[in-house]
Amino acid sequence: MGIITLLSLCSMAQEKKTFTLEDLIxxxxxxxxxxxxxxxGIQWWGDxxxxxxxxxxxxxxxxxxxxxxxxxxxxxxxxxEKAGAGKMFHFYEVTFPYADKPYMQITxxxxxxxxxxxxxxxxxxxxxxxxxENAEWEKNSRCR
Length: 144
Known about the structure:
By secondary structure, the protein is an alpha+beta fold. It has helices spanning 2-13, 21-24, 31-34, 73-83, and strands at residues 43-45, 48-52, 56-60, 67-72, 103-107, 111-116, 121-127. The protein has a domain at 43-127: Thrombin, subunit H, CATH 2.40.10. The protein is 22% helix and 26% strand. The N and C termini lie far apart (73 Å).
């Protein structure tokens, strides 16, 4: 009896879902759930990939899919306000220049900053020249 139950469970686990017209036609009841989604601003930081959003930025372990919130916009804006650096509205332009350090690089209208998101502290900052166009930041010399 136990072997028959085990075999029936294995056969049920291998059944594949067949799509319906509601899944495949735009405007169908389930089309949104079956269509691919765009993920903007994804980048690698060491062995994890980073998923930025408006309110928070997450690290995702590619092996397990485990998500960890690295920072929230309120916390970072509190640090920026103390430093007189302006305000952030989203995390889409944040970069992680060092794979072995918990630093995120942020550029606002007033300053270029490195923030240690684990300690919630500003590690380094530099004033931004408002006349610069297309300025790039170099991670080793920390110059623009």
